């Protein structure tokens, strides 16, 4: 897989410096021990309170350095990608930030982290520092395992420990709250791909229709592979694993964590599925969805839950300095406000009417456009953003759904109704353009009662507002010659003209309108415009029914 980096051996130090340069002046600093010892710490730290130190291998950004700041971590120690920091690095961090009140180390339950942080703690105690360590083992993926992994639930401990430290409480108290929190956290992850380490060969162990449940944050295999399925079903499987440890009547905080590569759109769908599941009734506070503890570019997510009481709720909702921490929000219902209604008698609010021929024609056109969804998306994927088929089929489905409400016995009113439907349901520029087309055609037909002339009037308004003409590599290249031919009364000639116009777009290597205008000549050559193809197909259907 492809990655953005300079040299693999510098990627972590350069990334940490990037964080420092973008975090705001006076917020963060690093020790002058690069590159062997990589410690990010609060620039304003005065050692008057308990220091909270965490860390581990890089590749989990924004963890851990992204959570250094007031109210959370005092310092973060970074190793190389997926590699624990050394004993010397952890010890250096302790020396740098521990004052009279001491330091708490928060460690994920991996052997390397336990050993390196543990030995550093022992050496620090020998030097006179007061040090405690809390180990987080929140992963429930592997039942009955002696040493569960520490994953995204560790962030709850960072937040709770940081809150109590910021309040000036002593080390024993801070450590007690942290350890109690660590014992009440459960987490489970799910991914559709493994992660790819920059500078290393990548091989995805998952098939095209497979996902992995319970995999770790370093790309290690999950407990089981599952067939790719709707999000609601994936979430239901995860909820079934998480639910046995949840007590009825006890509120929880939920962290919805992006493991690195899930688009925000899909993360929002995941959050909706989780909160709509039976798990939702246990949730009082929500953190995310957001990338909080990632696994480089893993296309997956994890869910973490912690039992709440008044003290933990105060800790998790307290404001903090680090921007990477997503403020917790209370679980709530969706607020719905009534949309303004169209005044009676406006925008095509015409009574339904029946005409068998028009019903058959509209039905055939819509069914054809729906059948072409994948092909039109494929074409648009090469010259645009890949959604023409989905957009057109969405409009066609909306028309079919409202077919019984259309004034099919009155052509002008039918055109106006089609304009209304496509303007609200189709989306994108195509929906607006076609809405303009049908709306203007309806107005012209009401004035002149000539169908072909009315459609040409609609085309005139569409090209005026849209700005595209023949030769600009859009649907107009098929629509304009087809309507010109239709004006002579020859439906077959119109279909032939539309097909010829769509075919001509294959040789147009420069688009002057639409998304294709951003595409280079090499990518446009030989590919027909999907909008023109859709128009040609529609006229073909009309000709077949004439």
Automatic annotation (TrEMBL):
At the top of the EC hierarchy, this enzyme's class is: transferase
**E.C. code:** 2.7.1.121
What residue stretches are annotated with the DhaK domain? 7-325
| Signal sequence bounds | none
**What keywords tag this UniProt record?**
ATP-binding, Kinase, Nucleotide-binding, Transferase
Write down any Gene Ontology CC term: cytosol
Q: Where is the DhaL domain?
A: 356-544
Q: Which Gene3D superfamilies match?
A: 1.25.40.340, Dihydroxyacetone kinase, domain 1, Dihydroxyacetone kinase, domain 2
- What SUPFAM superfamilies would the database entry show? DAK1/DegV-like, DhaL-like
Gene Ontology biological-process annotations? glycerol catabolic process
**Which InterPro entries did the record assign?**
DhaK_dom, DhaL_dom, DhaL_dom_sf, Dihydroxyacetone_Kinase
- Which superkingdom does the taxonomy of this entry point to? Bacteria
Q: What is this protein called?
A: Dihydroxyacetone kinase subunit DhaK
């Amino acid at each position: 897989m492809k990655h953005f980096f300079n040299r693999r051996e510098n990627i972590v130090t350069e990334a940490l410096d990037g964080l420092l340069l973008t975090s705001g002046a006076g917020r963060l600093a690093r020790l002058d021990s690069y590159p062997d010892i990589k410690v990010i710490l609060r620039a304003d730290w005065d050692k008057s309170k308990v220091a909270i130190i965490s860390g581990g291998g890089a590749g989990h950004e924004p963890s851990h350095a992204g959570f250094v700041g007031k109210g959370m971590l005092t310092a973060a120690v970074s190793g190389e990608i997926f590699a624990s920091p050394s004993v010397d690095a952890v010890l250096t961090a302790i020396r740098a930030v521990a004052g009279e009140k001491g330091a708490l180390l928060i460690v994920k339950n991996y052997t390397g982290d336990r050993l390196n942080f543990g030995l550093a703690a022992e050496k620090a105690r020998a030097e006179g520092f007061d040090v405690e360590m809390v180990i987080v083992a929140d992963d429930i993926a592997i039942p009955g395992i002696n040493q569960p992994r520490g994953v995204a639930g560790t962030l709850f401990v960072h937040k709770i420990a940081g809150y109590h430290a910021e309040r000036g409480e002593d080390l024993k108290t801070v450590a007690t709250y942290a350890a109690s929190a660590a014992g009440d956290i459960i987490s489970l992850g799910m991914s559709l791909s493994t992660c790819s380490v920059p500078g290393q060969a990548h091989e995805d162990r998952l098939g095209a229709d497979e996902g992995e449940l319970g995999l770790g944050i370093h790309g290690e295999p999950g407990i089981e592979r599952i067939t790719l399925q709707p999000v609601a079903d994936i979430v239901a499987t995860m909820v079934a694993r998480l639910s046995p440890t949840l007590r009825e009547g006890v509120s929880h905080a939920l962290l919805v964590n992006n493991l690195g590569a899930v688009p925000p759109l899909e993360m929002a769908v995941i959050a909706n599925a989780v909160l709509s599941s039976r798990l939702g009734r246990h949730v009082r506070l929500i953190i995310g969805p957001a990338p909080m503890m990632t696994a480089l570019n893993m296309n997956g997510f994890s869910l973490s839950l912690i039992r709440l009481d008044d003290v933990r709720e105060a800790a998790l909702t307290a404001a903090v300095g680090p921007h990477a921490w997503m403020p917790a929000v209370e679980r709530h219902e969706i607020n719905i406000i009534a949309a303004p209604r169209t005044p009676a008698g406006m925008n095509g609010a015409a009574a339904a009417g029946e005409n068998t021929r028009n019903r058959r024609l509209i039905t055939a056109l819509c069914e054809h456009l729906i059948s072409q969804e994948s092909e039109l998306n494929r074409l648009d994927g090469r010259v645009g953003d890949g959604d023409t088929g989905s957009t057109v089929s969405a409009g066609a489905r909306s028309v079919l759904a409202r077919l019984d409400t259309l004034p099919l016995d009155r052509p002008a009113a039918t055109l106006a109704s089609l304009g209304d439907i496509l303007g609200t349901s189709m989306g994108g520029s195509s929906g607006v353009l076609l809405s303009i087309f049908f709306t203007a055609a309806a107005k012209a037909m009401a004035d002149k009662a000539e169908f072909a002339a009315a459609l040409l009037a609609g085309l005139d308004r569409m090209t005026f507002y849209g700005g595209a003409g023949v030769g600009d590599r859009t649907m107009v290249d098929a629509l304009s010659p087809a309507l010109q031919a239709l004006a002579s009364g020859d439906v077959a000639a119109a279909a032939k003209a539309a097909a010829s116009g769509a075919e001509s777009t294959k040789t147009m290597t420069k688009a002057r309108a639409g998304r294709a205008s951003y595409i280079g000549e090499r990518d446009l050559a030989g590919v027909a415009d999907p909008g023109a193809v859709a128009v040609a197909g529609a006229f073909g259907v009309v000709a077949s029914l004439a």
